[in-house]
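Curious: why these numbers?
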Amino acid sequence: MQPVVETLSGLERRVDLSVPVADIEKEVETRLKRLARTAKMPGFRPGKVPLPMLARTYGPEVRMEVLNAKIGDVLEKVVADSKLRLAGTPSVEPKTEGVTDDVVAFTATFEVYPEVAVPDLSALEISKANSEVGDAEVDRTIDILRKQRVAFEEREGRTAADDDRVTLDFAGTIDGVAFEGGTAQDFPFVLGQGRMLPEFEEAARGLKAGETKVFPLSFPADYGSADVAGKTAEFTITVKKVEEGVMPAVDAEFAKQLGQAEGDVEKLRADIRANLEREVKNRTLARTKASVMDALAKAATFDIPKALVEDDTQQRIAAAREDLKQRGVPNADQLPIPAEAFASESERRVRLGLLVSELVKAESLKAKPDQIRARIEDFAQSYEKPEEVVRYYLTDKARLAEIEAIVLEDNVVQHVLSKAQVKDEQVSFDELMGTA
């Protein structure tokens, strides 16, 4: 008789199953005989260990392996016959009440994948991001590149201002006592870049070479050094040198430094514009993709398996620990990271993943080879040797899979945009780049 799969609640199911003892013992005997061909034990030649001795030594272990395999086979058949899809690992408990001696009975509790209903895409409201790259954006980018190559020239009698490099001696004390890290000679830093605490920079601002200043400085409570955190020190600074930052001219030499072999400034501007347009395209697509995924996630109302949420949460916790390790945090493996911190986002990711998967299947949105190739070639254009990048991605299965996943998401985004209510969103270049 076909076992009855009982619905507990939502996606949780339960079924009582049994395996004949005779089947288990027969398989145990078969495996022990197979093991006997090569088994080694003290006092016996390989393959000559008596079967009863093998059974005493390895019998319990083999029997457990067989039992687990039989349980898996029976459960798999029931799930397949019931046209269900298991989500996560089932919980299996032995059953003894009302069970005859000729069978081993157990109860399996498990979750199944939900029936994913694709929402009405025409009812979704999507923001499609747009941004422009003009001469002003190219000019600002060139200025950033010039600042990265600034040369500092000493100016006699110059008053220190932001973007100047100041070289000074400093000595700090707390309650009249010097502290570690509070003294330095010929220490250089650029004003206005936030390398020093604001009170320190403000004290140096406006001084000339040869001038000295004494001032109080309050260390923040969360300052990196516990010895001085939250305390107030008295600093004495003496400026040794003030250097003005001089940016390079936008000329042939500058163009060559940036990889324009001919030193052609106009070609350099064209290259910069192309790079900016490529970056803007990627960022607006990412912004639009986020709007599409948010709308899909809100429209998805089906139940999701708790097991999948738990798996995703554990993966995110593992990633967080790895990130802490990379940052040099001691004992990152032992630090408590509450699962609740990721639960909400994990639920969203699982629900969205199931919906996107259903959309891909229903609308045949799988990534095509020519799409993958085009995406790799576009990505490679930002590198000095694009052809090598293309070859690297096409010959590395892991990298290729990453690009395939990106293209698949792009296909889903374009499909949703073709059906949904789309509102154009003009985004400023600065906001898009995070420099607003």
Observations:
- DSSP finds twelve helices and eleven strands in the chain.
